């Protein structure tokens, strides 16, 4: 039981290490290789596809860098296009992004190979939603107090929810969580995230 808890904690920590590596090394990498940044993103995507079936690919910055690359591309596109014009294409891509995100939550069930090509579904979904936000007539879907609250605590929520799940399972000696357990963990995660 203790070994299982420790290994589940390590899985999350390894992914956080990828984020840490990105935020630590990317500014230097970008300064040195900024002309080749799109090539690096594409290279990372190719590595992710080639090594998709290997367990280690989930935990390496080289195979996950392209995820951050979507954000980098959004930054440059928005920087070079300051106009916040609502257009038909922005509306279409915004809705497409939402659909891709919803589809991803159903399709990526833990049995699918991930990362790799499957990872493009949520990445493109998030890309379209973030890029088109502020430029679509559907902004009201995300621009409300309820979702802004969760946007404000999202990173804290991301950091706190997994340890809560692990410790909850450990102390109550539960492998599977029922709906009541899930509601308790969700509530505690939101409360702790708000105060972090």
Topology record:
Layout: H1 2-33, H2 37-50, H3 61-80, H4 88-107, H5 120-132, H6 145-172, H7 179-195
Helix pairs in contact: 1-3, 1-6, 2-3, 3-5, 4-5, 6-7
Question: Can you tag this structure with a few keywords?
Answer:
196 residues, mainly alpha
**Unreliable sequence segments:** none
- Judging from the principal axes of the Cα atoms, what is the shape? globular
Radius of gyration over all CA atoms, rounded = 19 Å
What is the ordering of alpha helices and beta strands? HHHHHHH
Termini separation comes to 29 Å
* Main sheet properties: none
The share of residues in extended strands comes to under 5%
Determine the structural class based on helices, strands and strand pairing.
Answer: mainly alpha
Q: Could you state the oligomeric state of the chains shown?
A: single chain
According to DSSP, the number of beta strands is: 0
Mean pLDDT: 82
Helix percent reads over 70%
How many DSSP helices?
7
């Amino acid at each position: 039981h203790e070994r299982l808890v420790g290994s589940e904690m390590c899985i999350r920590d390894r992914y956080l290490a990828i984020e840490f590596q990105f935020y630590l090394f990317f500014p230097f990498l970008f300064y040195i290789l900024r002309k080749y940044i799109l090539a690096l993103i594409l290279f990372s995507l190719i590595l992710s596809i080639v090594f998709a079936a290997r367990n280690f690919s989930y935990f390496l910055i080289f195979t996950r860098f392209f995820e951050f690359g979507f954000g980098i591309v959004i930054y440059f596109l928005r920087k070079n296009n300051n106009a916040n014009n609502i257009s038909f294409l922005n509306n279409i891509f915004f809705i497409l992004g939402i659909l891709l995100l919803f589809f991803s939550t159903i399709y990526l069930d833990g049995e699918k190979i991930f990362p790799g090509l499957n990872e493009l579904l949520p990445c493109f979904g998030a890309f379209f939603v973030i890029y088109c936000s502020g430029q679509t007539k559907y902004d009201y879907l995300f621009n409300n107090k309820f979702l802004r609250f969760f946007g404000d605590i999202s990173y804290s929520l991301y950091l706190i929810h997994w340890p809560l799940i692990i410790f909850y399972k450990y102390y109550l000696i539960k492998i599977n969580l029922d709906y009541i357990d899930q509601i308790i963990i969700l509530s505690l995660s939101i409360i702790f995230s708000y105060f972090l």
